[in-house]
Write a structure and sequence with these properties.
Layout (H helix, E strand, L loop, with lengths): L24 E5 L4 H12 L3 E6 L12 E4 L8 H6 L3 E4 L13 H20 L7 E7 L9 E2 L7 E3 L10 H18 L6 E7 L1 E3 L6 H10 L4 E3 L5 E2 L1 E3 H13 L5 E5 L5 E2 H10 L7 E3 L6 E2 L1 E3 L2 H7 L7 H14 L4
Parallel strand pairs: 1-2, 1-4, 2-3, 4-5, 5-8, 7-17, 8-13, 9-12, 10-15
Antiparallel strand pairs: 6-16, 11-14
Helix pairs in contact: 1-6, 3-4, 5-9
Length: 334
């Protein structure tokens, strides 16, 4: 991919960024995304020196001290990453489709979820400066047969880190491949590397393309929406909480391995629509396509996360949707 024009090129480009020896240097990939920008903001506030990489420019915000590289990880020259010599890496960059992928997604998923991750790991695995690698994985690596049920009234299934792995789709497969590659690196070339695989459940947040955000935007614009299996129950969590969790996992020297990142609460689609209505946001028309088994009834078991960092995501669905509504009504991009 051709580089963006000079106005959009990064402050660091291909040169080594000037820095103090004592500064904490953090690489964030996928920084322009819904989790990435919250994470990047938190890191900057903590005083870390941050290099962000994303195909997209950073949205409007307070990024004065940020070094942003607008480029495609699957084909960019990675010298800028190695020259930065990060002490910590948050790898969030990915593409995904939640359910059945379109034919076009096969090449997209391979490029963005496998090739890009492989290149980042390959470039940094040889660098002894890297102490911690936090990977944004997904609960989609788990066997869907463990939480898909025939009866919509079945109690939600608590998925823990020992649940059988059998990736649900291409996104899950790509995430699991990266987990395994990081494990291999830890066993071979960089045994001192601390790897955290955060298996994240259903995220929603400001400026996102997630389903809750899309429904909120539709409600504000008096547009219709389509729903399917309204009794499906998911573990929804707010993007700000995901960012806080990742920061805490990176900052805890004892955190290593796999952690479920969720709210620990199962919420039905019907409940989401009811909370939107409480906020005065109701789509003009809801097209209900009916109920067909299997139904999803999943919730994250976050006991391992809680035991490790002494904190778990605490933004309620009501608080999260209220924040979404305020964001959309304000017409903000941040």
């Amino acid at each position: 991919m051709a580089w963006a024009d000079s106005a959009l090129r990064t402050q660091c480009s291909r040169k080594r960024i000037e820095r103090s020896v004592s500064s904490k240097r953090v690489l964030v990939t996928g920084a322009a995304g819904v989790i990435g920008r919250q994470l990047t903001s938190k890191l900057l506030e903590s005083g870390a020196e941050v290099l962000s990489v994303d195909r997209e420019p950073m949205p409007p915000g307070n990024w004065v001290d940020l070094h942003h590289e607008q480029a495609d990880l699957s084909e960019m020259d990675l010298e800028v990453l190695t020259n930065f010599a990060p002490t910590a890496v948050f790898h969030l960059a990915a593409s995904f489709e939640r359910s059945e992928e379109s034919a076009a997604y096969w090449s997209v998923g391979w490029r963005d979820d496998v090739v890009a991750s492989h290149r980042v790991i390959g470039a940094l695995a040889r660098q002894t400066e890297v102490e911690t690698f936090v990977f944004a994985s997904s609960y989609l690596v788990y066997d869907p047969l463990s939480y898909l049920v025939k009866d919509s009234r079945t109690m939600p299934v608590a998925v823990d880190e020992s649940t059988q792995v059998a990736p649900r789709n291409l996104c899950g497969a790509g995430k699991y491949y990266t987990e395994r590659e990081l494990r291999y690196v830890g066993h071979t070339s960089q045994p001192d590397l601390r790897v955290v695989n955060a298996r994240i459940f259903r995220v929603f947040g400001r400026g996102s393309r997630d389903v809750i955000s899309r429904w909120v935007r539709a409600g504000i614009a008096d547009q219709p929406i389509e729903v399917f299996n309204r009794s499906n129950r998911f573990d929804y969590l707010f993007a700000d909480d995901v960012a806080e969790t990742l920061v805490r996992l990176e900052g805890d020297s004892g955190a290593s391995g796999i952690y479920n990142v969720g709210s620990g609460r199962a919420t039905s689609i019907d409940r989401v629509l009811a909370v939107m209505a409480q906020q005065g946001i109701a789509p003009q028309r809801i097209s209900d396509t009916g109920e067909t088994a299997p139904f999803e009834a999943s919730v994250a078991d976050i006991s391992r996360l809680r035991a490790q960092i002494g904190w778990t995501p605490d933004t309620t669905l009501e608080e999260g949707i209220e924040a979404l509504v305020e964001h959309e009504l304000a017409g903000s991009d941040v």
